[in-house]
Amino acid sequence: MTQDIDAAYRAMLDGVPAKASISTAAEGDESKRPLEVFFLPPSAFSDDSPAKPNGPVEMGMRLVSELTGDTAMKMALSAAWLERDEFQEEPQRTQFVTSEIMTNVLARSLTDPRDRTKLYFHAAPEGQCRAALSSGGVAALWERLERLRIKHSPLSPEISDDQVAQLVSILSSGGLRSLSEPLQKRLRRLLHVVLADLLAGVEDADTTPEG
């Protein structure tokens, strides 16, 4: 059962490889194309949503401003205040606020696959996003957004040569296996992206004719 859940989460996180949807996105104005275009499977949508799709849905993803993030947090805290009588313990409130922030940010990050200026959830985005996506879908899309930030945000620090050597040393000595299972899974997913980009870059370098 756990393997089935992991496989479903993996599918939501990865979506369909970007090459499968780039041709469609490129039909529009190239300058408006989102940073990432992918297909989201039906399993990412809530079973309670009347608009749950029968097949994969193509959408884009963009980065949002710090102001949008601040607004998402204020909205989440306001919602938590309105629902304050529902929380028996502080961890419940914290989990609620975190989920609300993630959903609010995703509502402004998910776009039309051909135009990043058009939101995927275009009418009352936060409410639509909250009603449409499952909790697993929100978690998977949030992780995808985190990967996008790391790859494209100028605020993300670059690893130094010394840190690369340190990373190689930790991985080769089995340091990854000593971490908690949730953190280990998260880091393995991030390292999977790093390795895929690295291998693609090496392949391109090998096939590029020398001048």
How is this structure best described in words?
This protein has 211 residues and is an alpha+beta fold. It has one domain. The chain contains 8 helices and 4 strands. Strands 1-2-3-4 form a 4-stranded antiparallel β-sheet. A hairpin with a 2-residue loop joins strand 3 (110-112) and strand 4. The longest helix has 27 residues, at 181-207. It is globular. Residues 1-10 and 16-26 have low confidence and may be disordered.
Low-pLDDT segments:
1-10, 16-26
Largest sheet: 4 strands, antiparallel
Strand-pairing-aware structural class: alpha+beta
Q: Which quaternary structure do these chains form?
A: single chain
Number of strands: 4
Total domain count: 1
Mean pLDDT: 82
Radius of gyration: 19 Å
- Strand percentage lies at 5-15%
Number of helices: 8
Overall shape: it is globular
- Strand and helix order: HHEEHHEEHHHH
Write the layout of secondary structure elements.
Layout: H1 2-14, H2 19-25, E1 36-40, E2 57-61, H3 66-82, H4 90-109, E3 110-112, E4 115-119, H5 125-132, H6 135-152, H7 161-172, H8 181-207
Antiparallel strand pairs: 1-2, 2-3, 3-4
Helix pairs in contact: 1-6, 3-4, 4-5, 4-6
Keywords, separated by commas or semicolons:
disordered N terminus, 4-stranded antiparallel beta sheet, 211 residues, globular, alpha+beta, 58% helix, 8 helices
Brief account:
With 211 residues, the chain is α+β, with helices and mostly antiparallel strands.
